[in-house]
Amino acid sequence: MRKGQTLADSHLVHYQHVELFSHELQMKEECILAVFVKFHLQTVFELDLNLVFPEECGLRPALDVHRVTHGSEVTILGEAPWQVALYANGVRFICGASIIANDWILTAAHCVEDFYWDSPFQIQAGTLTHDTAGQVHEVSEIFKHPLFDSFSLGYDIALLKLSTPLNFTDAVQPVCLPPPGDHLPEVGSYVTFTGWGSFGEMRGPITRNLQKARAPVIPNNICQRSLTGFHVLPSMFCTMYDTGYQDTCTGDVGGPQVQEVNGRWTIYGITSWETVCGKAYSPSGKTRVSSFIDFIYKTIREDD
């Protein structure tokens, strides 16, 4: 007890120290509990997702070697086994899309705008030509990103739930998703895309046979310089050639933009928009999939 301090004061200081110590201990326990709960929920969350997403993804079992060229036909069934065709009312081709699980499909939100198509949707998988039957499945539910804007094409991503699961074969396989927070693809790298897009003509006739090509990723600020009245968002990325190589065009929209990582193919982009098809210095835009991993996981987890 300090000089001039009464016994009551001494007890008060003691109790204050005890109370402070108890408060600090409680805070530490709460922090430990919060970390434990977060870890537990994350573990449960990952376990739930493991039940949805297949362990094997991004593989092409039909191929022994990878063949990718500029603007050529896909000649081997199973070269892009995650590519599907999206149809309205079973007869009208709408867009491309990608398999990410046996009953989940990833595409562009503007492909499934309510006011644009007033009919049921189907997907066709495991085929090189969009007008011949592979595996055909009805779409039972559509989940567009809640912030999707049809004018700016921001948040141009949607998930389609199938009424019946796909049967995985050499010609039908899921593509891998990138990790959350990943800002890939890197500028200067090439993405491979597939689709039934027209040859160098906006709104021209789509091709019958599935096409493939590669295009270089450019910085968003360089992409922005080529555009007027349109804002390139961080959740987008662009590709552009300085020559007349083929890029995405009408009919490719909604389809995958992939890269091979450690022997597996990962979808980094969804074909979203283009300026002029196949012309030099004319960029085309993609939805950056890594910006929407939380949306994908949350949607699937809450629905299943």
From TrEMBL:
It is found in: Secreted. Its main location: secreted. Residues 68-301 form the Peptidase S1 domain. Pfam families: Trypsin (PF00089). One of its GO terms (cellular component) is extracellular region. The keyword Disulfide bond applies. One of its GO terms (biological process) is proteolysis. This is Peptidase S1 domain-containing protein. It comes from Strongylocentrotus purpuratus (Purple sea urchin).
